[in-house]
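ok here's the first one, seq then struct tokens
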Amino acid sequence: MTRRLPSRSRESGSAYLVALFVLVVLTLLGMSLSLITVTESQIGANERSIQRVFFAGELGVQLATAKALTIPDTRAMLLDFNEPSGGAVTIVNRLDVSGMVPIQVSSDRPLVKADAEFFKINHAVTSRSSRLGWSPGLDPDSDDPTVLAAAVVGMMIDVQPLGPTAESIAAHDSAALKKISF
């Protein structure tokens, strides 16, 4: 006697549905990993841009100090550095460095060197650094840029001997003091 197995007509196509469900889950997993990768890449690019403007701001303070020691010139300066970019976007790193403003003069103990008296003088300087970008079709000389990143670095510098000259003190009015920030 042979026994006949019951018909599985209700289960026909179930392998197709399981395979389709697995493909949908794998597709969603792949898309989410792709989105995470793109997001992490953008975060890394933003972090790199922020580090660039911070170190550019620090460079502005160093330039102001070097200029005050070598020329000596303690006036404010505005510098633009074009960044070579392979794309159509024009990128400029801009440094707006305040003048080195003498904020404290210690006249109780002058430093004597080679027949001249130098006093301990603290100077304040602020460097505002920004990374600007112009989209294709915009003129960098006339159109407003997009600020990609910005940083402000304020420092108090004690350089000896660097005495205040009448010219450097006259160059710093209340507007110069308003540019100083810590």
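and now the second one, same deal
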Amino acid sequence: MDSPTDYKQAAIDQWTADPCGEVVAEGETGTRAYFESLLQSRDDYAHWMHDSLGYAQTAGLDVLDVGCGQGIDVTRYALAGARATGMDLTPRHVELARKHTTAMGLDVTIVEGDAESMPFADASFDRVSSNGVLHHTPDMPAALREIRRVLRPGGETRVIVYNRSSLHYWMNQVGYCGIVRGQLFQERSMAGVLSRGVEYSSTGARPLVRVYSPRQVRRMLNEAGFHDVSTTVRHFHAEDAVLTGILEKRVTALREQKTLDRIGRAAGWYVVGVGRR
């Protein structure tokens, strides 16, 4: 793929065939039972996202979720009392997010749009969130500038992207997939390795997947014009790194949430970036 347009079409192809999270949910897509299963699966996977995305702090605010997928975060914001809007590049995601928020009895706006060129007026929102999305867009700095544009003065953004400084990246993606399995030699780059295997695909779709260190995320937020910028690192499961996956059955601490959270805060798979306009 040579152009940003190709990368974006690859993302649409990926999540049209395999809507985000579908593999872990039960039931028929578009129904309340399916969506409640999806919500529970997210909580089981990443309990820390409630605090990191600050759902409880958004009552009465206009909140935009960039890359809303099937509607998990936009639903959490709406349930917390926010006036919530979701936006996604993939029409299938837009369709499902509308069905799911309707099934939940929520008054939520879901629109189709590109993070690098959003269909909203300047200063439209008090909070803009983007969870696990911007590492798939070709021009993340442009997306961050757009987030700042649609935020009101004093408004806040919270973005979550894959962490280049994580144990998962270095042990599983570089070490195991890249070197042991030979994918780095086949693909000729880590970009190819990540595109090939990070996201589940039933069709062989290869969306763009990038990783960013906390330092890179802080720099990009500052360059986009945000202030009071900070980052935290979260998320670790024993199977996220080859070594801890092997040791899990023998080391009791690796089955304890407090240990996993401690590792996650040092070398987890996600960087959470926060900035204020």
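notes on #2: The longest strand covers residues 151-162. The chain has twelve helices and seven strands.
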